[in-house]
Specification:
Blueprint (H helix, E strand, L loop, with lengths): L2 E4 L1 H6 L5 E2 L5 H11 L1 H7 L10 E5 L2 E2 L15 E6 L5
Parallel strand pairs: 1-5
Antiparallel strand pairs: 1-2, 3-4, 3-5
Length: about 90
C-alpha cells in the first residue's frame, strides 16, 4: 500500500498522521485520507479540487506532474510526501 506522509508544518494546523492507503493514483490516495479527515482537504486542495499553489507532492522523491487531476500513478511501495511551502524571514 502507498504510504502518505505530511510535513510537520501541516501537522501544526491539522491532525494528519502518516498512513498507508489503498490507492492507485495521488487523487485516490488523498481521497482515502480525506474520508477520515475532511478538514485536511482545505489545506491541500482548492475549491476546484486542484492542488493548492503553495502545496507540493512528491512520489518516491519526484514531484507529481499533474497538479489539477492528481492522476499520477502510485504503486504498493510508493512513498507520497505532501509538503506545504513556508515563507517568512
Amino acid at each position: 500500500m502507498p504510504h502518505v506522509c505530511f510535513t510537520s508544518h501541516l501537522k501544526q494546523h491539522v491532525d494528519c498522521p502518516s498512513q498507508d492507503v489503498d490507492a492507485a493514483t495521488v487523487r485516490e490516495s488523498l481521497a482515502a485520507i480525506f474520508a477520515k479527515n475532511a478538514r485536511l482537504r482545505g489545506y491541500i486542495l482548492d475549491d476546484r479540487g486542484r492542488l493548492r499553489q503553495h502545496v507540493v507532492i512528491f512520489i518516491d522523491g519526484r514531484p507529481i506532474s499533474d497538479r489539477e487531476q492528481l492522476s499520477d500513478s502510485v504503486t504498493a511501495t510508493s512513498e507520497i510526501y505532501v509538503m506545504q511551502a513556508l515563507s517568512g524571514g
